[in-house]
What we know:
Elements: E1 28-35, H1 39-50, E2 55-58, E3 74-75, H2 82-116, E4 123-130, H3 137-149, E5 156-158, E6 171-179, H4 182-195, E7 199-201, E8 206-210, E9 215-219, E10 224-232, E11 248-261, E12 269-272, E13 279-284, H5 292-295, E14 301-312, H6 319-333, E15 342-351, E16 357-360, E17 368-372, H7 378-394, H8 401-404, H9 414-427, E18 447-453, E19 456-462, E20 468-472, E21 483-485, E22 490-492, E23 499-501, E24 506-508, H10 524-529
Parallel strand pairs: 1-2, 1-10, 2-7, 4-12, 10-17
Antiparallel strand pairs: 3-6, 4-6, 5-6, 8-9, 9-10, 11-14, 11-15, 12-13, 13-14, 16-17, 18-19, 19-20, 21-22, 22-23, 23-24
Helix pairs in contact: 1-4, 1-7, 2-3, 2-7
The structure holds flavin-adenine dinucleotide (FAD) and FE2/S2 (inorganic) cluster.
Flavin-adenine dinucleotide (FAD) is lined by residues 35-41, 58-61, 65-68, 70-74, 205-206, 233-235, 238, 253, 255, 279, 307, 346-348, 374, 376-380, 382, 509, 512.
Amino acid sequence: MNLKPKQTISVWMQGDSIHVHCELTQDVDAEVCVVGAGIAGMTSAYLLLKEGRTVIVVDDGPIGGGQTERTTAHITNALDDRYTEIERWHGSEGARLAAESHTAAIDRIEEIINLEKIDCDFERLDGYLFNSIGESPSLLEQELQAARRAGLLHVESILHCPLTGFDTGPCLRFPNQAQFHPRKYLLGLATAILRMGGRIFTETHVAKVESGTPARIRTEKGFTVTSEAVIVATNSPFNDLVTIHTKQAPYSTYVLAFGVPRGQVTRALYWDTENPYHYVRLQAIPSDVSASALFGNPLTEELLIVGGEDHKTGQADDAEARYDRLETWARARFPVNERRRFHWSGQVLETIDGLAFIGHNPLDGPNVFIATGDSGQGMTHGTIAGILLTDLIVGRSNPWTQLYDPARKTLLASDRFLKENLNVAAQYGSWVTGGDVESAESIAPGTGAVVRRGLTKVAAYRDEHGQLHECSAVCPHLGCIVRWNHNESTWDCPCHGSRFDKKGHLLCGPANTNLIQSSGLPDASVEFKAVSV
Ligand SMILES: Cc1cc2nc3c(=O)[nH]c(=O)nc-3n(C[C@H](O)[C@H](O)[C@H](O)COP(=O)(O)OP(=O)(O)OC[C@H]3O[C@@H](n4cnc5c(N)ncnc54)[C@H](O)[C@@H]3O)c2cc1C
Ligand code: FES
C-alpha cells in the first residue's frame, strides 16, 4: 500500500515528497490520533498541539500526497455552490455562518503563515465570478444579493473582470481572497507540528478505527495507536460504510498550466458560471527551480492555471477531449501562446447541500470525528475542520457545529440526494453487462479493460512488457464494478469514488483495501451480498 504511484503530475508535485517520520513500527499513544496528512488532518493536528494536546498523525503516503497536492488552492469564501443555493438549503443564518466560517478560514491560514513564518507564496487577491456565454445577468445579481445577505458586504458588481483581450461582461468582485502553494504550506505545518512535539508517521496504512475509551486505530502492519480521540481526515472516510457516501458524490476535475507573459494577466482568482465551471489563477515561477524547461523563466513568465471539465468519477474516460476543451477555452480568453506545461486531474467530493461534513462520525463512538465533503473548497473546509474539530475535542462550543454536522439531514436538498443515489444505483447495472473486451487477449500493452469471467468481472491490466495482471473488478467498498481510466492508468469506482492503481492497489477510499488479486477472486454471489445502497 505504502508509497502511492504517481499518475499525472501537478505544478506542486515537483521536488522530493515531504516525509518526516517514516513508517510506524511500534504501538504508540497520544491524546489525539489524526488519520490523514492532507490540509484537513495537518491543520487539525497543528491547532490541537497549540491547545497543548499530544498528537500523532498517520498517513499511508507522504504528507500532502492525497488531493492536497492536486488542488489549485484558490482560498476563498466565494462558495462554489453559490450563496443563493446555500441560503436555500441552509437558511439565511446557515448562509451567514458559512460565509463567516470560510472568511475565518482564510484569516486563520494567513495567521498561521505569519506566526510560523511559512514561505508558501501566500497572497491576498480579489476573486471574480463572471457569467458563461448565454447566462442570464440576473444570476449574478441574485448571487450578489445573497452574498451580501450572508454578510459579505464588500462583494460588488462591476462591469468586467480586470483582463485585457477578453471582455467577461459584468462580474462579481469578492475582495480579500487568497492563494498559496499548498505543499509548501503543509511543509510549514509539518515543521511546526514537529517543533511542538507532534509525531507524524507516513507510509502507514490504517486498516481499522475502533471507538471506545480509549479509541484504537490498527495499522495494516499490526501496530496500534491508542488515543482519547480520533480524527479521520482521509478525504473520503473509510470508517463510514454508507451514511456519508449517500450524501456526497465524487467528481473528477482537470487542470492545465501554461506559461504566460508575466504581468499580462491580472493576478486574481477567476471563476465562470458554466456547469461545470472553470477556475483560474496564476502562480509565480519559483526562481530557484532547476527544471526551467517545465516551469519557464521566472523573470519573464508566470503560470496560468486553468481547471474544469468535471464529471462523476469513473463515469467518463475521455480525459484528452476534456483537456482539449479546457485548452480551447483558455486560449480564447487568455494570452496562451504555447504548449501545455502541466496537466493533471484529481477528485473533489460534492455534498448534496454544498458544505463539508465536519464533526462526530454518525453511528460511531463519541470520540471519533471525520472531515470530508470538500465541495471543491478543501482549502477553507480543511481549515474549518481544524478549527471546529479542535473546539469539539477540547470541549469548547463552536457556532458552526450544527451547520457542518455530518449527521445533518438537509431536506431542501433532497432532489440532489435522490439524483446522486439513483445515479449510484444505476452503476450496479454493470454486473449484468458484458466486459469492455471479449477477452484479455485483446488488451494492448500499457492499458487495462474489464473482462467478464462467468458470473463476475475481472480488472485486467497488461503491462508494457505484455504481462497480464488480473484482479477482481469488484470494488471492496460496496461492490460496484470499477472502470479503467486511460489517462491516469487507474481503476476508478463509479459509485463513491474509490480508486486503485493499475495493479489494483488502493489509492483512495472510501474502500480501504486493494482489489482482490486474481488468485483469490471471489464467487460473484459473495460480492452481491455487499451491495446494499
Ligand atoms: C484539481 C483540483 C482542484 C481543486 N481546487 C481547489 C481550490 O481551488 N480550492 C479549494 O479550496 N479546494 C480545491 N480542491 C479541493 C482540495 O484540494 C481538497 O478538498 C483538499 O486538498 C482535501 O484535503 P484533505 O486533507 O481532506 O484530503 P487529502 O489531501 O486527500 O488527504 C487525505 C490523506 O489521507 C491519507 N489516507 C487515506 N486513507 C488512509 C488510510 N486508510 N490510512 C492512512 N492514511 C490514509 C491519504 O494518503 C492522504 O494523504 C481541488 C481539488 C482538485 C482535485
Ligand atoms: S466506492 Fe463505493 S462501491 Fe466503490
